[in-house]
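Re: How this chain folds, sequence and tokenised backbone to follow
Notation: Tokens come from a learned vocabulary of local backbone shapes, not from coordinates.
Start of record: The labelled sequence and token lines come straight after this line.
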Amino acid sequence: MDKSVKIVHFSDIHFTPRAQFIRSNYDEAVSVINKTPHDFAVFSGDLTQDGLIDEYELADTLRREIISPKIYWIIGNHDSRSGGFEVWEKKIGPREFREYSEDILFIGLDSCIPDRDGGRFGREALDYTKKILMKYGDAKIKLVGFHHHILPIPKTGRERSNAVDAGDMLSVLLDHNVDAVFTGHKHHPNVYKVEDTIIISAGSVSSYKTRSGGSRSFNYVEITPEKEVKVKIMKTNGDTIRNELKTITRRFRMVDSTGGIWLRLAQIAGTDFGAGNNQKELFQKGINLINITNPDLILHCGNMTSKGRTSDYESAVEAFLPYSDKLIFCPGPNDLRGFGETLLHKYFDIENTIEKNNSLFYVLNTSAPETEIGVVGRTTQHRLEAYVYHTRQQSRDKFHTVVMHHHLIPIPGTRETSALEDAGDVLRLLSDTGVNLALSGHLGRAFCTRVEKTAFVNCNTLSSQHTASSENSFNLIDISTEGAMVVSEINVPSGFRRILGIFPGIETDNNKETTK
């Protein structure tokens, strides 16, 4: 690729003859798009409001006002309402497609479930995407577009309408080195760098619904030959809201760990005391392996007990008593069952901020009694903001970790059915402020990735049978004196260790990014 590729990315027009469609904003956007030089455009869903035939007829007329070398049209959940997915194929085109031209691969996917706001890719679409990405693995630019978001978006509350298999799609995108992903759906523009894949969400061009009184908008994306991705988020009148610059490195980097290990963390969840069966046997095997690794700290990310009973807590306290000086505990939903919330504070001192081993750990309790849904809320968010904006600014020489139960990043091999309320706001806060590490212990499967400069690590259960994996495990996280992080999963029955991720350059003031 010897020249930049310029892309107009717009979404969520919501054509309708009714009041939900703001014609003046659409006309403004069309005027700006038609004057903006670009190689092609991507529309990421919700062309219509309710998938009705009169809306499709209006859309088929007005969309032709856009002047572009090529537009990739992607179906949205509103387009799939009322049987609209069939009308889409007649009026707009195929719901899934691929095109390879001039070393650029673009894959368009249908992530919609008819008459549902939530999405699903499904096994066939995931396999299809893998097959195409492998076939065109030498493409200089690999792009994928679909309607539903796969990472939580700020200002959108509970993740009620995400793609349930978002983790599986994220794994495919990362495994096959997709350069950029284009989504819509939540009417709020957002850009994240996840490892070396840039995930770009567009706001709405002309829907009556916006977030926090924000402007209707679209994106202008430029991908340079050096793999810099420049995203300009623009109002429909062409004014710039903000600019984002992300760099795709795509090079193998050896981490410098010559100074040795600075900090070793054992991350566990789901000890499930009181569950019976072989829980005690599995726990003993797991804790014996943890003892062999000799961690500086043990971070328990929830569900220490099975039902939050007095006997469950007493068993847990006895088992962890030898590790009381190195244990940091964040409760899970099981720990708060029944009278569990009262017992939790009786047996454990749950602090918000803990300082150990020249590191700061913020315990973010995302669990609430009698629900699997994660809860943060405005008050807790404000306390977290105070930590990351004030405490961290005053202690930049320390390693900063947030410990919670519920995950923020979708996990491959699981379904997003009990996600965290306000996950988008928490994710944006952590990644913007550069918190070094975020730990979670939800859904029973180990996974890690990096969003911007923050590593997100989820662990499997240590001794609970409620696991999405075939066997129990825990994570071992080694941070070197030069800032490199190695995340491993250790299988409890066999002791087998596998690398989950290697992240160079976890930066503090005392340890700047170091790579070879």
